[in-house]
Design goal:
- By secondary structure, this protein is of the alpha/beta class.
- Strand 4, helix 5 and strand 5 form a beta-alpha-beta unit.
- Helix 1 runs antiparallel to helix 3, helix 1 crosses helix 12 and helix 2 packs antiparallel against helix 10.
- The longest helix is centred in the C-terminal third of the chain and has 20 residues.
- It is globular, with a radius of gyration of 19 Å.
- The mean pLDDT is about 90.
Length: about 280
């Protein structure tokens, strides 16, 4: 994985403060979860998007294949130079030879695909025996940890909390928000054994993310957020200030992280395909 600060790469890659918060904590969790284990090549980033997360994880020109369904995002990943190569394809039917990958990484992708079982089966077929599948998804309690769900619940408006939670998951196209044991069962049915998992984005951080996301949504609807993005993209001074402020803020958040917390809006899972020992 990349030795250059993934925090700096995330901040420079995303203007949205909520995206910076979530992705930074997510990457911190992934690196902690992997620890000293060796991820074996060749590696695939399933649903690589524009390559920002891959660049933060692996560094420039890494020997990782990026796979993306959306053509515009695929071209952006190629232009960013985040991968050794970027190909178009569908996670439900990976365009690679059976048992050709040593590691497959997928960051916040599977929850958006209705046919998640097809993805898991394709991942299992593409991994070598002992190959590693590392992915992140929202937790079952994600919707309950959101700011407005929490406020409604504390005010005794349980129906409002449930409605807000359901609507937010629907708007985010979250089809699969499960507990770790449910993911373990589903993975096992495709020959993948969970060896470690960790929740991230505490209740407080998930509430903060929700506030930021709703605020950006309101500004976007008011046609004001585009002005902010334009300033960041066209003014080096404005973007420089943003980067410095965000870096100081995120570093403070990380220093105060409680990594032993049992709850969280996100879930990182590390699993291996039965039949070998690719990671140590």
């Amino acid at each position: 994985m990349s030795d250059i600060s993934h925090i700096d790469r995330v901040i420079r890659g995303y203007v949205h403060p909520g995206a910076v918060l979530w992705r930074t904590i997510e990457l911190e969790t992934i690196k902690d979860l992997v620890g000293d284990r060796r991820l074996v090549e060749p590696m695939l980033d399933l649903g690589c998007g524009e390559g920002i997360v891959g660049l933060a994880l692996f560094g420039q020109g890494c020997r990782v294949v990026g796979l993306e369904y959306d053509r515009e995002s695929m071209m952006a990943a190629r232009n960013l130079g985040a991968y050794g190569s970027v190909v178009g394809g569908d996670g439900r039917d990976l365009p690679f030879r059976p048992e050709s990958m040593g590691t497959i990484v997928s960051n916040c992708v599977i929850e958006h695909i209705r046919e998640a079982e097809d993805v898991l089966e394709s991942v299992s077929q593409t991994l070598r025996p002992g190959g590693c599948f590392l992915f992140t998804v929202p937790t079952r309690e994600f919707g309950d940890l959101l700011f407005f769900s929490t406020v409604f619940r504390k005010c005794g408006f349980k129906g409002g909390a449930e409605l807000y939670s359901r609507v937010r998951n629907e708007r985010l196209n979250h089809y699969h928000c499960y507990a770790p044991d449910e993911w373990q069962r589903r993975l096992a049915s495709h020959g993948l054994d969970v060896i470690a998992y960790r929740k991230y984005m505490s209740h407080k951080l998930t509430m903060l993310w929700d506030i930021m996301s709703v605020l950006v949504y309101v500004l976007t609807r008011a046609h004001a957020w585009s002005i902010v993005e334009w300033l960041m993209l066209n003014s080096r001074r404005a973007d420089g200030v943003r980067v410095r402020v965000m870096n100081r803020w995120i570093q403070g958040v990380i220093r105060r992280l409680d990594k032993s917390a049992g709850e969280g809006g996100g879930l990182a899972i590390l699993s291996i395909k039965k039949g070998g020992t690719n990671i140590a």
